[in-house]
């Protein structure tokens, strides 16, 4: 398979995630956008690892680290959103910034 196909898919995923972070007001949707961007990075890492045929599989190892960081980020992010909702009764980031 040509390298172009996963790179185009990765660019599309990253673009959708970036739009989700920049255009949404809901904090949960922003977290989902960040997760999409991290998955695009993972796809790039695995695609380049397969393309270069690295004997150490560096791309796959970095992907495992990225997945671990993404799991920690989503756990901490959802905890922060839950605490924010309990305090302000909204997850709209525009309303939270105006109320403080």
Task: Give descriptors for this structure.
100 residues, mainly alpha, 0% strand
Cα(first) to Cα(last) distance is 52 Å
Mean pLDDT reading = 93
Structural class: mainly alpha
Q: Output the number of helix runs.
A: 4
Low-confidence stretches: none
Q: Characterize the biggest β-sheet.
A: none
The level of helicity is over 70%
Oligomer: single chain
Structural description of this entry:
The protein has 100 residues and is mainly α. Helices cover 84% and strands 0% of the residues. It contains 4 helices and no strands. It has helices at 4-23, 27-52, 58-88, 93-99. Helix 1 runs antiparallel to helix 2. The radius of gyration is 17 Å and the shape is elongated. The mean pLDDT is 93.
Task: Characterize this entry briefly.
By secondary structure, the protein is an all-alpha fold. It has helices at residues 4-23, 27-52, 58-88, 93-99. 84% of the residues lie in helices and 0% in strands.
SSE inventory with pairings:
Layout: H1 4-23, H2 27-52, H3 58-88, H4 93-99
Helix pairs in contact: 1-2, 2-3
